[in-house]
Amino acid sequence: MQGAGEAAAAARRGASNAATQTDSMSGQIPRLSKVNLFTLFSLWMELFPSIDCQKTSQVSMLHVKKTGLVVVKNMKIVGLHCSSAHLHAGQIALIKHGSRLKNCDLYFSRKPCSTCLKMIVNAGVNKISYWPADPEISLLNEASNPTCTEDAKLDAKAVERLKSNSRARVCVLLQPLVCYMVQFVEETSCKCDFIQKIAKTQPGFNTDFYAENRQEKIKEFESLFLIPSEEMHKQILMTIGLENLCENPYFSNLRQNMKDLILLLATIGASVPTFNSFGFYCNESQPANEACHQSMPQEIARHCMIQARLLKTSCNDWNCDGTGAMYFIGCGYNAFPVGSEYADFPHMDDKQKDREIRKFRYIIHAEQNALTFRCQEIKAEERSMIFVTKCPCDECVPLIKGAGIKQIYAGDVDVGRKKADISYMNFGELKGVSKFTWQLNPSLAGAQGLQVLTANGSKYWDLLITCV
């Protein structure tokens, strides 16, 4: 991650008041609330690319929706999970965390089924929030299998009974976005390094590409996360115990909040596009027999980078661990030192001629926060990687190498440049760490240039996520 504009997954509380730039519309960069950030991460985890090629049904007869889950403790993320072919997200979380789920808050992309709910309630969780659309055991009408629909309704009743007899608070937590939030994210996303690299290297590049890609993502995500028919949505809400949200203005407000969050997610998702032969590739020749130099599949690399860009929308505390066979060991964002008040340090950017009142010497970089407040150790024998939304600066490059990180996934727009009080001279010369930057596939061999990820290989991946 770069010097002064990043967000990375392990920043501490107290710096969240320290938004360092201003926005011409609102006076300050709009930020995403923690509740909505956790909710968006649960939706995005539902879309985590599957590394299990087996297409077995999760539950006999029942239509089980893939589900994303974020585990939060003391307002810090300690787990990111998604359903596999054999296990629900709640089951994976229980296997991973066990009794450590006690007093945690769980954010689901679907209302969990009775099988998951009874176990996580039994573990002593504090709060369970879920996205108020079609639940994990789908309630969407299936005319071809009425038995499935009836069983889904029975499961919904069981979930309600478990909810009413548990100490855990089971609820819907959605908050309206702050003013100009979507507009700000759209403006920054269409100008991000990944889109700009495509524009600069493709003659005759269609300037409407980002907008078209964004519209496709909006349609895709709305079909996944929003029930098109309002009447059907009301029926499902009543079945899962949310009949109080079926009357206006509550229902219309709920739909609008859901649409806004989907729009935000699609806007960020379009910023790291699938476009021709662009992806994260290494320019250097690497020994074929060294696993630490093998790249991950482009789908997974894109997914993790979008997580980093999503993190950029919020100043939050982070500690992440676990999604399937990949483990997140830390996140971070750019901020002032822990405990700082907003007015303690200078806030001027590089446009300020007086260098003494510039902010750069006081900012803790995203990479630094991610490494400082990681929730797991970085093991030398395992392949660790860091995702950065921009090129790491000279202050962070030696830290990344010294920590034993094996791979860096980043943009390279600023490589070799010195900007104000931030320089990026050392990234291009970095040795001993594989650098995968966003670019046109050097070999132009398309899929031939990708390494196949096996389940056994993936379990040795540790990830740090930072974002600028």
Automatic annotation (TrEMBL):
Give the keywords, sorted: Hydrolase, Metal-binding, Repeat, Zinc
All copies of domain CMP/dCMP-type deaminase, residue ranges = 51-147, 299-424
Q: What is its EC number?
A: 3.5.4.5
Citing just one GO molecular function, the answer is:
protein homodimerization activity
**GO biological process annotations for this chain's record?**
DNA cytosine deamination
The Swiss-Prot or TrEMBL record lists the needed cofactor(s) as:
Zn(2+)
One Pfam family of this chain: dCMP_cyt_deam_1
Q: Has the keyword Zinc been applied to this entry? A: yes
Superkingdom of the source?
Eukaryota
| Reactions catalysed according to its record | 2'-deoxycytidine + H2O + H(+) = 2'-deoxyuridine + NH4(+); cytidine + H2O + H(+) = uridine + NH4(+)
Its GO CC terms? cytoplasm; nucleus
Q: To which protein family does this belong? A: Belongs to the cytidine and deoxycytidylate deaminase family.
Q: What is this protein called?
A: Cytidine and dCMP deaminase domain-containing protein 1
Ranked from the top, the taxonomy reads: Eukaryota, Metazoa, Chordata, Craniata, Vertebrata
Gene responsible for this protein: CDADC1
